[in-house]
Amino acid sequence: MNAPCVSVSAPLLNRGTDFPVLQRPVRGRRLVYLDNGATTQKPACVIQAEADFYSQSNANIHRGVHVLSQVATDMYDQAREGVRAFINAERVEEIVFTSGTTQAINLVAYSWGLANLSEGDEILLTGMEHHSNIVPWQLVARQTGAVIKVVPVTDRGELDMDAYRALLGPRTRLVGVVHVSNALGTVNPIGEIIALAKQAGAKVLIDGAQAVAHTPVDVQDLGCDFYVFSGHKLYGPTGTGVLYGRYDLLDAMPPWLGGGDMIHTVSFEESTYAPVPQKFEAGTPNIAGAIGLHAAIRYVQGIGLDAIAAHEQALLDYATAQVNTLPGIRIIGEAADKAGILSFVVEGIHPHDLGTILDNEGVAIRAGHHCAMPLMTHFGLPGTARASFALYNSMDDIDALVNGLRKAQQLFGTGQHA
After folding, report:
1. Does residue 42 belong to any structural domain of this protein?
2. Is residue 3 part of a domain?
């Protein structure tokens, strides 16, 4: 029987109830998991949903006339409808299941990009993009002759919107922008970004990997052409993700991968293709993953994204204030509008060393360039330490982080007051 994914405020107060892994000790200490920007932990109801599918309903979809296939197909279709409602897409056909944000961006780049970009066309990205929203466009630009232009980032970690306006032009074909920076926590003004891009006649792709677990997203209200995100950052399974695309765009785009279930007819002379979204879902999909993602969405909706956002903002405010009391620590990214991500550097301590010391204290953070090397180059850094917060974190977790930072400074003999 499924563990319920229903409204319960307990995870914001009692972190151990719904997330089994958070109950395990690490190095003899209570686990303080602050690496949520990399992946979130999974509630029991998500784990159970996948287990129930495999133990009770496992079958391939869209192929069989037997009961298990029909049940599996219904569950998969319900998951797609759950995603549609979650981001308020107009049509369920606008939801394409992928393996994650990276595959979703590659799908757009190779399907829409190769079909619509030509020599001299411009792809406008930002200086805070994740590598997955840079490298696919570089590969496609090489094949099409398109040119990549970059919106610069200010020293506060915000986009230079004046530069963005100046870079938009008659050859701008696509604007690709992250909703929330995974390295800084900056929440970009994507409503304004989309509106300006539309005035220039450009299509817009939003990387929402760091946004959908923390803030409500309404793709119709935003008016974007593509919106992508990963299930594993939304308390769902790894290897799951979503591409939202406007129906008219998806319908016109050619298939990216060929194989079973994406076809209408096949002969050795010619093949015709299934309608969207099946056209982009070749082969047996991650059925259990989609069902688990649906369970995760129901879980988040049961708590309420507004409540989650308020809780995480309180954590960020507290963490920022506490870290600022420590000498020799500099926060990287001080945008006026931030999500629950705190990146920083500690004088005299490499981020990897810092991460190791904190791990010995049971505190899990991320240390490195966060798949945002151009952004690190802008700040003149090899990387940062990053603490990222989720609905199950607490003020006690922040205290453990700060105590760990003090211990690291003591070990290295840094950060002493004059």
Report:
1. no
2. no
Q: What is the pLDDT of residue 17?
A: 80
Catalytic residue among 5, 45, 224, 371: 371
d(CA 107, CA 253): 10
Q: Give, for 227, the enclosing helix (H) or strand (E).
A: strand 226-230
Round to whole Å and give the CA distance between 123 and 149: 6
The total domain count for the chain is 2
**CATH number of the CATH domain containing 408:** 3.90.1150.10
What is the pLDDT confidence band of residue 7, given thresholds at 50, 70 and 90?
Answer: very low
Q: 375 and 392: one domain? A: yes
pLDDT digits (tens, 9 = 90+) for 245-268: 999 999 999 999 999 889 999 999
Residue 166 falls within a domain, yes or no? Answer: yes
CA distances from 186 to 26, 121, 130, 159, 340 (A): 31, 28, 13, 9, 9
| Dist CA 92 CA 83 (whole Å) | 8
- What's the whole-model pTM score? 0.95
Is 371 annotated as catalytic? yes
> At 395, phi and psi to the nearest 5?
-65, -30
Instruction: State how far Cα 208 lies from the chain centre.
Output: 5
